[in-house]
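Illustration: SpoVT-AbrB domain-containing protein.
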Amino acid sequence: MQTTIVKWGNSQGIRLPKHILNRVNLSDRDEVEVYVDGDNIIIKKCCKDGKHKTIEERFAGFKDEYEPTEIDWGKPEGKEIW
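Result:
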């Protein structure tokens, strides 16, 4: 199938026909992963079988050091319990 890249707000996009989305069981508002592999743009279905990624899966590529810090949000403004 051949399609055209079109302006969509401040971005560009492509339209995917329903028969293609049906073949991979995708529908409106489903999340997908998009990445580049050489000269190819790959669109991949996310969260297979409705399973969300674990925290380990989400940070698998994170290589930096993590230093936990405490944030001072100031005095309570309402009926917060501290």
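Reading the tokens back as a structure: The longest helix spans residues 18-23.
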